[in-house]
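Final report, closing paragraph on structural work. Over the funding period we assembled a curated collection of sequence-structure pairs, and we close with a single example.
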Amino acid sequence: MIAIVEPTEGAPAPQTADARVEQLKTMVSASRLSLYLSCRLKFFFRYVVEIQKPKTAALHVGSAVHSALKAWNKSRWRCEPLSLKRLHDTFMKAWTDQEQPVEWDGEEAAEQSTAWRLIEFYTRQANPTAKPDFVEVPVEADLTEHGLPVLIGILDLVQGGKIIDYKTSGQTPNPERVAHTNEVQTSIYSMLYRANTGKEETGVELHHLVKTKNPKVVITPLPPMTEQQQSRLFHLIEGYVEGLDRRDFLPSPGLQCATCDYLAECRAWH
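Its predicted structure, as stored:
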């Protein structure tokens, strides 16, 4: 059962669930679409009724690593070398700026050490002289001519016309599997790049920073998006909009439920 909290006197009335659904139909991102395809009820809890959950340790590690690499890439874009100390300061600021509580289970120090070793290892391995085209650019693509909503997203890094996306992982990824499981995201990034540059990307690279005892980086290169992949993406977005129209928020029970933040809410769903 979901509690409805009455607004305090003078405060604006909260947006209704129906109004949020209508808003979600007008814009779609890779994270929204991927979550809807994964579990419609989880999407409902997160984006429609907006139930807040503590941040997971893995998510916080990924966010802090991402912030540090963003600063490092921007320094390369500006041709202003970033010292290791300044990079570490940026990382620590991102680590301590916790807008949401994080569930550490007593592992914060170990996780922090691992995250920093990943950053240090990656920046040593990467080519520091290669100048990025774009860093952390918010972009959108209007697909209304196709009867679809506006695509929104942020490109982590574009270099030599290649879209690069960072991911942290606890295990070494399988190239074929990650190409498939990330196809929605990479296709959306390709659409965003093409809509904002008028050019086709030279490819996509998934850079996995793997949190093993000895840090490593696994790069999965992917070719430019094909017409078939674009067609698949458009059909998935169409299904997303039609599902929101029908208020289709059924659960998708499976092994993924064991680590879902909304397990209690899902068990109480009726």
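The CA atoms of residues 34 and 182 lie 9 Å apart. The first strand starts at residue 27 and ends at 28. We thank the funder for supporting this effort.
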